[in-house]
C-alpha cells in the first residue's frame, strides 16, 4: 500500500464481560468522524437477523444482559467493537448495514456477518451470509449515498479519508472451512501455510478496494488461538487437553502474514 496509508494493527482483549446497560453511550467528540466495520460473528450486530441462515443470534440466550434482549450480537450484551465504539467517543453504537438509514451513514456502518470469511465459500454450509467481498460491495453502495449526501466526490473522499476501517475476519475460514473437510476441500488442496497465503492475498485485495473507495486508516485484527475456543475444544479436543494444537498452529502463518501488510 502507498506510504500515506495508515494501517493500524489493533489487538483488543476483553478481561471481563461488561453488562450492556443502555444502547447509547456517553456523548463526547469522537476521535474519528466515522467507523466502518467488516467482519464475522465477533462483530455482527444484526446483519444476519433476516437472512436464511443458522448463523444468527436474534434469540435467547444471546443478549441476556442487554436491556434490549437479543439484538443479533453473538454475546450476552456488547461486542468488542461496541466497546471500541465507546472508547472512540461515539454517542451511539454503529448500526448494522441491514438497518442503516441515510441519517446514520456519516458516522459509519457495521457490515459484519456471522459465518462469513475472507473466502466467498466460507460458512456457506450455515446458509446465507455476507462474505468480506460482499461486505465491501455493500460499502460501495454506502459510499455512493455519502457522496450524494455531501454533494460531490471530493467532500466524500475528505470525510472517508478521516474515518476508521475496522476489519476482524478470518476465524471462520479455519473453523468453518479448512477444518471442516466434510463440507470443504481446502485442507486437501492447501497446506496451512499455503492456505494462509491464499487468505492474505484475498484479504489484501479487499483492503486495496477499500482504499480505492477512500479508506486510509485501518484497524486489522489478528486471529486468536482458535483451538482454545469452547466449540473447537468440544468438537476436536482430546480428553484432558486444554486446546487443539493443530488449529492454534494453523493460524500462526496467517497472523504472521497479516503483520507483513502493516510494516
TrEMBL record:
InterPro entries: GDSL (IPR001087), GDSL_esterase/lipase (IPR051238), SGNH_hydro_sf (IPR036514), SGNH_plant_lipase-like (IPR035669)
Keywords: Hydrolase, Lipid degradation, Lipid metabolism, Secreted, Signal
Any one biological process term the GO annotation gives: lipid catabolic process
Subcellular location: Secreted
UniProt name for this protein: GDSL esterase/lipase
Gene Ontology molecular functions: hydrolase activity, acting on ester bonds
Pfam families membership: Lipase_GDSL
The keyword Membrane belongs to this UniProt entry's keyword annotation: no
Gene Ontology cellular component annotations, sorted alphabetically: extracellular region
Family, as annotated: Belongs to the 'GDSL' lipolytic enzyme family.
Residues making up the signal peptide according to the UniProt record: 1-27
Amino acid at each position: 500500500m502507498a506510504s500515506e496509508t495508515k494501517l493500524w494493527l489493533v489487538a483488543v482483549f476483553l478481561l471481563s464481560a461488561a453488562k450492556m446497560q443502555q444502547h447509547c453511550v456517553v456523548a463526547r467528540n469522537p476521535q474519528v468522524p466515522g467507523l466502518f466495520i467488516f467482519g464475522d460473528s465477533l462483530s455482527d450486530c444484526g446483519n444476519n437477523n433476516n437472512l436464511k441462515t443458522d448463523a444468527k443470534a436474534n434469540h435467547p440466550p444471546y443478549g441476556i444482559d442487554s436491556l434490549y434482549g437479543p439484538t443479533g450480537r453473538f454475546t450476552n450484551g456488547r461486542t468488542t467493537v461496541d466497546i471500541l465504539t465507546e472508547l472512540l467517543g461515539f454517542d451511539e453504537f454503529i448500526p448494522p448495514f441491514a438497518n442503516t438509514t441515510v441519517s446514520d451513514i456519516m458516522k459509519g456502518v457495521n457490515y459484519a456477518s456471522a459465518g462469513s470469511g475472507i473466502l466467498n465459500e466460507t460458512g456457506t454450509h450455515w446458509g446465507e451470509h455476507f462474505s468480506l467481498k460482499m461486505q465491501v460491495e455493500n460499502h460501495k453502495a454506502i459510499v455512493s449515498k455519502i457522496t450524494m449526501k455531501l454533494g460531490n466526490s471530493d467532500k466524500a473522499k475528505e470525510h472517508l479519508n478521516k474515518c476508521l476501517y475496522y476489519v476482524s475476519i478470518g476465524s471462520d475460514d479455519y473453523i468453518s472451512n479448512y477444518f471442516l473437510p466434510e463440507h470443504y476441500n481446502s485442507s486437501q488442496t492447501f497446506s496451512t501455510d499455503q492456505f494462509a497465503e491464499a487468505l492474505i492475498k484475498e484479504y489484501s485485495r479487499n483492503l486495496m478496494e477499500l482504499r480505492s473507495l477512500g479508506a486510509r486508516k485501518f484497524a486489522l485484527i489478528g486471529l486468536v488461538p482458535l483451538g482454545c475456543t469452547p466449540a473447537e475444544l468440544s468438537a476436536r479436543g482430546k480428553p484432558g487437553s486444554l486446546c487443539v494444537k493443530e488449529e492454534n498452529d494453523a493460524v500462526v502463518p496467517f497472523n504472521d502474514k497479516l503483520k507483513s501488510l502493516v510494516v
